[in-house]
Automatic annotation (TrEMBL):
This is Respiratory nitrate reductase subunit gamma. The chain crosses the membrane at residues 6-23, 44-69, 89-108, 128-144, 179-197. Gene3D superfamilies: Transmembrane di-heme cytochromes, Chain C. The keyword Mitochondrion does not apply. Residues 2-221 form the NarG-like domain. It is found in: Cell membrane. It is a multi-pass membrane protein.
Length: 240
């Protein structure tokens, strides 16, 4: 089981991610969207969407730093382990609260607005369960030990994560990891595998063409230069 969870499941999740992205791009390119429901309700969405997106971006940034920046690097720039732990604890908790609050408002909006709820698919519900579960488990694991420097995941989980990229996973490093971190990691890997098959796929969309496209210039119509507007056809007249 240890080998399967930490030596097989990560690659299976990554393979499903890549295969799903390729499939969606090839056969469901027009479905590569969040299916915005702003037309049905915008007040709560204008609050929840920025809160969730900023929160989840901070969460992802924290995970990237915690897992892929070795402790020796942070010590080299003068950040000791205690300072790093405090930043990780308070910064990570704040980011997690933002993301969870955003999801909470989004779910409330979907449950209380009939047109939005009818537009909610089974995949959306599954995505919310795993995304919220991953966030809550990570926060609980982080807050379960606030004494001293907390659990030193940078000596176990982080090296294991980096070893996956060398195709030589050090599964033995995960043997003594607390159960909450185990569950959090497994839920996170399942969530990664689900990304291409849910609305989360839009995180891989980048409108790069906007960087090079020409500007669109809008000009108002000046009757003094262009003259009066021509009469509309009968079926285009106001009130027809």
């Amino acid at each position: 089981m240890n080998v399967f969870l930490w030596g097989v499941l990560p690659y299976a999740a990554f393979a499903l991610l890549i295969a799903g992205l390729v499939w969606r791009h090839r056969y469901d390119r027009f479905g590569w969207t969040t299916r915005s429901s702003q037309v049905y309700e915008s007040k709560l969405l204008n609050i929840a969407s920025p809160v969730f997106h900023y929160g989840i971006l901070f969460v992802l940034a924290g995970h990237l730093i915690g897992l892929f920046v070795p402790a020796s690097w942070t010590r080299a720039i003068g950040i000791n382990e205690h300072a790093y732990h405090l930043f990780s604890l308070y910064g990570g908790t704040f980011a997690g609260v933002l993301a969870v609050a955003g999801i909470g408002i989004l779910v409330y909006r979907r449950r209380t607005n009939a047109p939005v709820f009818r537009a909610t698919t089974a995949n959306d519900k599954l995505m919310y369960v795993f995304l919220l579960g991953a966030l809550l488990l990570g926060m609980i694991a982080k807050l379960s030990d606030t004494s001293g420097n907390g659990y030193d995941y940078r000596s176990t989980i982080a090296p294991w994560s980096r070893s996956l990229f060398t195709l030589n996973p050090k599964t033995e490093l995960m043997e003594g990891v607390p159960v909450l971190y185990h569950v959090h990691a497994v839920v996170g890997m399942v969530l990664i595998a689900l990304v291409p098959y849910t609305r989360l796929v839009h995180m891989f969309s980048a409108p790069l063409q906007y960087l090079t496209r020409p500007y669109v210039v809008y000009r108002s119509r000046d009757p003094r230069q262009l003259g009066p507007r021509p009469d509309r056809r009968g079926w285009e007249r106001a009130g027809s």
